Each structure stands twice: as C-alpha cells, then as structure tokens.
Amino acid sequence: MQGRVLMIGLGLIGGSLALSIKKAHEKAWVVGYDVNEEQGRLAKMLTVVDELAVSIDEEAVKADLIIIAAPVIETEHILHQLLRLELKENVIISDAGSTKQEIVRAGAKFKEKNIAFIGGHPMAGSHKSGVSAARPLLFENAFYLLTPEEHIKEDQLDLLQNWLSGTNARFLVVSPKEHDQLTGVISHFPHIIAASLVHQAKRSGETHELVARLAAGGFRDITRIASSNPNMWRDILLHNKAVLLDLLEDWQLEMEKVKTMLTSASGSEIHHYFADAKHYRDDLPQKQKGAIPAFYDLFVDVPDYPGVISEITGYLAKEEISITNISIRETREDIMGVLVISFQTDEDRSRAISCIKHHTQYDTTIGL
Ligand SMILES: NC(=O)c1ccc[n+]([C@@H]2O[C@H](COP(=O)([O-])OP(=O)(O)OC[C@H]3O[C@@H](n4cnc5c(N)ncnc54)[C@H](O)[C@@H]3O)[C@@H](O)[C@H]2O)c1
Ligand SMILES: O=C(O)C(=O)C[C@]1(C(=O)O)C=C[C@@H](O)C=C1
C-alpha cells in the first residue's frame, strides 16, 4: 500500500503499529506525533517513523490513514480535534484504545462528514510502555478487535485490514458493547486484581519485613501486570466503569464462596475449586497471543555459575535468534538456576530449543 500514515501517540502500541506498517508497506510514509517530544525524538531515532509531525492539524489533512494510539480519554479528545479539520475524503481513521464504547461514540460524528472511523484494539501488549519497547511483531497471532459501525463499507474495512496486515494479527469484528464486556472480564478486571494483590502485600510488608523479600514465583507471575502504565489504566477504568462495577460484585460473591468453602474446611470442595480452574486454564489456547502467554517463554535448567547467561546468549546470537528478555531464577541457592528466556515468536523459541540442545546438555521446558 502507498500513502501517508499519521500515527498519533508513539508509545508501545503506536510504535509497534508503525513498525508493522513500515515492514509491510515499503512505499508508505509514516509520520508520527506525540505530545511528549522525547518519545517523538526517540521514535525518529529508532526509525519507528519516517518523519515527525509538528502538529496533528498540519499532518492530519494530508494523511490517508490516521491511527490514534494514546490513552483512551486522550483518544476521545484527539477525535474531537480531528472532527474540526478538513481531512482527505478517503482517509481511514482508527485507534488502538483498550475500550470501545466511548471512543466509538466520539467517532460516530465522522459519519456526518462521510469519513470512515473504525474502532480498533490489538489484543496484545505488555506492562512496559514507551517506544523503546515497541516491536513489529508484538501483535503476531493476537486477536485484533475491530468495531465498525453499520455504515462502514466492506472495502473501507478491507482497506484498514490491509494497512494492518504486517501485524500478522487475526481480525475479529465485534460490537463496542461486546468488546467492553469481553475485555472487562479478561483484561481490565484482572489488572484491578493484580494491583489489589500488590496493595495487600504492601500492607503486610509494613509489619512483616520478609514479605517483599519473599515475593517471588507465583506472586510475581500474577502481579506482573500491576507494573503497567497507571495513566493508561486510570483512563480504561473511567471508560469501562459500569462493566467493572458489575464484575466487582461478581468477584465479591466469588470471594464469599471461597470464604464459606474455607470455613467449612471441605477438602473435596477445595480440591474441586482448584481442579476446575486448572482444567479451564490449561485448555485455553496456548499459541495465540492475547490469550496466554503474552510472550513465548523457555525455561532452561542451568548450573548457577557466572557466565552461564552469556554462554547461552552467545549460542543464540550465533544462530541469529532474537530474544526479548532473559532472567535467572534461583531454585536451590548456588546449585541450580532456571534461566527464563522470552521470545517474540513461537518459531524463535523452537529454534532456540534446537540450538541449546545442540550446544549443551541443559534441559529445556516450554513456559505455559
Ligand atoms: N499497553 C498495552 O498492553 C496495550 C495493548 C493494547 C492497546 N493498548 C491501548 O493503546 C493505547 C496506547 O497505549 P501504550 O501502551 O502504547 O501506552 P504508552 O504510554 O506506551 O504510549 C502512549 C503514548 O501516547 C502519547 N500521548 C498521550 N496523549 C497524547 C496526545 N494528546 N497526543 C499525542 N500523543 C499522546 C504519550 O506521550 C505516549 O507516548 C492506549 O489507549 C491503550 O489503552 C495498550
Ligand atoms: O500483557 C500485558 O501486560 C497486558 O496487560 C496486555 C493487555 C491485556 O490485558 O491482555 C493489556 C491491555 C490491552 O488492552 C490489551 C492487552
């Protein structure tokens, strides 16, 4: 595809979308805008965008595709700003926000101007923010939810999907209401729970000094998302308030159920509670992002000696296998450790398994 793309908001998501568009459409010219000048400069330096816009107004009127990847309340304001401009007749406008009802309501006014606004939400991400965390394949195999209104024509929807083809995501059309209910359950509410678990541990930590030191394994896994950007989550909660209040009531009932179960100390009931959850969780699709996992993890059992990380990364680098993260978890102090290596694709992880098998005797296990 050819044309000018304006990416508004050059953080994790805007940066990743810009990279995927540049990768798939060599003839496209991607112009970026971010209120935070430093993010803009960094995006240009990392060649995430071809050019920086001085203002939204100046660039939007020339754009063939405009994507807004700012926090959701900012996204509403930007849509109002775009509504005042004389945009190109065939421009497609979309966004990447985590909520859809309020955004689609703001975007509905484009209908009167005969301009296509199609709400969008790539269902993958990270607790990291900023353009330095952006990756062209962040959305590979993830669902990309689209919420076109009825007046949007098939060819306008196709055009947007063509622009976004480099994400390698799987497009799914849902209504804005359905979107906010689904993401409320599987994304927004879990972020509240993760933050509340951290608050609980923090309170305990005030009286038990060991809490923070012992917080490892399970606690770190379940609270990773509590490290996400607070601005982004403030806006999401404000937008999806009604759904989240309902879910909170459900959750309180669920906790009441757990309380009764624990009070009556019924072993078999407790077993069933965990067994049912395990069964459902284990059956969730594994290979698709946006479900579980967000990254492709590989666990390598290694002797805990200095230099083991560089040994493994050396083998991977030799075979040009890129990794997104690496860390070591100690299991038995000074004897064995588990190296946790994250990859961006399943294919990279499979190549890494063969590479490590070829060069070492270390056991590898796939992270579920
Ligand atoms: N982080 C995730 O996992 C994830 C996944 C899918 C969708 N989203 C959604 O994508 C959007 C962006 O999230 P992110 O993770 O990239 O956040 P981010 O913090 O990494 O980036 C957001 C960027 O938007 C910029 N910005 C804020 N207001 C702006 C404005 N008025 N004009 C121009 N730029 C502005 C900020 O300076 C920042 O650089 C949000 O709506 C979020 O809900 C996030
Ligand atoms: O993996 C993470 O850190 C995320 O929180 C990503 C996540 C999610 O909840 O799954 C967060 C918000 C987005 O709207 C979509 C994806």
TrEMBL record:
Catalytic activity: prephenate + NAD(+) = 3-(4-hydroxyphenyl)pyruvate + CO2 + NADH
Keyword annotations: Amino-acid biosynthesis, Aromatic amino acid biosynthesis, NAD, Oxidoreductase, Tyrosine biosynthesis
Molecular-function annotations in GO: prephenate dehydrogenase (NAD+) activity
Entry EC number(s): 1.3.1.12
Keyword Oxidoreductase: yes
InterPro entries referenced in this protein's UniProt entry, alphabetically: 6-PGluconate_DH-like_C_sf, ACT-like_dom_sf, ACT_dom, NAD(P)-bd_dom_sf, PDH_C, PDH_N, Preph/Arog_dehydrog, Prephen_DH
Domain named Prephenate/arogenate dehydrogenase: residues: 3-292
Record pathway: Amino-acid biosynthesis; L-tyrosine biosynthesis; (4-hydroxyphenyl)pyruvate from prephenate (NAD(+) route): step 1/1
Domain ACT: 297-368
Xref: Pfam families: ACT, PDH_C, PDH_N
Enzyme kind, highest EC tier: oxidoreductase
Family: Belongs to the prephenate/arogenate dehydrogenase family.
NCBIfam families assigned: PRK06545.1-5
PANTHER family: PREPHENATE DEHYDROGENASE, PREPHENATE DEHYDROGENASE [NADP(+)]
Name of the protein described by the UniProt record: Prephenate dehydrogenase
Organism: Cytobacillus gottheilii
Lineage, broadest ranks: Bacteria, Bacillati, Bacillota, Bacilli, Bacillales
